[in-house]
Amino acid sequence: MAELSDDDLLNELKARFNHTKQTLYDLKIVSRRLEEVNRKLQISEQVKSNFVSHMKNEINNPLACILGLAQQLRSHEVDRETVVGIAQSIFAEAFSLDFQLRNIFAAAELEDGATMLQSGTIDGHSLMIHAVNDFAHLILAKELNVYFLGKKMNVASTANFEEEKLYFKSDSEKLELVVQNLLSNAIEFNNPGGRIDLDIGVVEDRLVLSVTDTGVGLNPEQIERIFDRFTQLESGVRKAHKGHGLGLSITKAVIDMMEGSVHVSAQPGEGCTVTLSIPFIETDSEADTFSVDGNEFFFSDDQSELF
After folding, report:
1. 44-103: per-residue pLDDT in tens?
2. What is the pTM of this model?
3. How far is Cα 4 from Cα 182, in angstroms, rounded to an integer?
4. 15 FRET partner, CA 20 to 30 A, in 30, 133, 147, 209?
5. What domains sit in the chain, N to C, each tagged with a CATH number?
6. Residue 120: how many CB atoms within 10 A of its CB?
7. DSSP characters over 203-229
8. How crowded is the C-beta side of 196, counted as CA atoms within 13 Å?
9. Closest CA relative to residue 174, chosen from 261, 255, 68, 114
C-alpha cells in the first residue's frame, strides 16, 4: 500500500470533513422540512377538529329549533297566525341545514377526489334568478336590494322577472352550488338595506359571472385566506357572521376543476366583488342535458342556440 504524503492525507481528511459537513447540512434541511410538515399536519388536524366541533353546533342548533317548533305545532291551542310564523321559521332553519349539508358533502367529495364534471346545457339567467328565489327569505329579512344585469328585482316574486336566455355548457349542479355560495356570502356580509349586483355574460367564449355586495369588505391581505378550507376570518363564540368556512373553498376548487379563474376585489367597508371566468365544457354527445336550477332534462342540441 502506497504511503500518503502529508498533503494527500490533509486533502483526504478535508474531503471527508466536507462530505460529513454536507451530510449534516442535508440532514438539517430534511429535519426542518419534517418539522414543517409535522407542524402543518398539527395545524390541519386542529383546524379540522375545530371545524367538526363547530359543525356539530351548526347542525344541532337548527335541528333542535326545528324539533322545538314542530312540537309547538302539535299543540291544539295554536292560532293560524302563529302556525304561519312557525312554518316560516321551520323553513328557514331547514333551508340553512340543507345548504350546509350540501356544502359538507361537496367538500368531502372534493377532498376524496371523487368529484367529476358532468356536462349539461344551462340557462345562466335562470340559474341566477333561481338562486335569488332560493335565498329570498334571507334577502327580504335584511331588506337588501338586488339588481340583476342592472335591473332591480322584485325579490318577493322573481317569477315575473324576465330575461333573454343565456345558454352555455357546464356542470349545472356544481355551478348552482357555486352561485348559491357567492350569493349567501353577499347576503351574510352585507349591511342591512344594502345592495347586491348580479351579472353574467359571455366574453371571448368564456362565461363571466360576478356577485357584488356593499357590505363590510375585506383587507387586501385577507383575500387569499378566504379560499382556505375550514378557514373563517372570524372565530370564537362571539363571531358576528354565520358560516363554517367551506363555501369559498368549494367555489375555488370547482372553478379550478373547470379550468377557470376567481378574482376578488374588495376594500374594508366598501363591499366585495367576486368574479368568475370559466370556459365552456366541450362535449361530443349527440344528446345533452338542460338545467336551469339543478334539475336536468334531456334534449337534442338542435333545440336551442348555444354559445
Report:
1. 676 666 666 666 767 788 888 889 888 888 876 778 888 888 899 999 999 988 998 888
2. 0.71
3. 76
4. 30
5. 1-115 (1.10.287.130), 120-303 (3.30.565.10)
6. 22
7. ETTEEEEEEEE-SS---GGGTGGGGST
8. 32
9. 255
